[in-house]
């Protein structure tokens, strides 16, 4: 395999099982606290299935890139 192809292959996004947890753990308590608080809130982790949650967490780990367009 050519050096350039290997470098390109290494740049791919690889998602690993970042967090293994019981999805129901603490759910009821977090929802109760969020909906009785002012302002009301609900963690976005409850909006995604397992794969969506892993993607969300992987995105949060990416470095922040700031650009100035003008």
What would the keywords be for this entry?
70 residues, single chain, mainly alpha, 3 helices
Structure, explained:
With 70 residues, this protein is mainly alpha-helical. 43% of the residues lie in helices and 0% in strands. It contains three helices and no strands. It is flat and about 45 Å long.
Beta strands, count: 0
Please describe the biggest sheet, giving its number of strands, its sense, and whether it closes into a barrel.
Answer: none
Low-confidence stretches: none
Distance between the termini: 41 Å
Secondary-structure element order, N to C: HHH
Q: Which percent bin holds the helix content?
A: 40-55%
Secondary structure layout:
Layout: H1 3-10, H2 27-36, H3 50-61
Short description:
The protein has 70 residues and is an all-alpha fold.
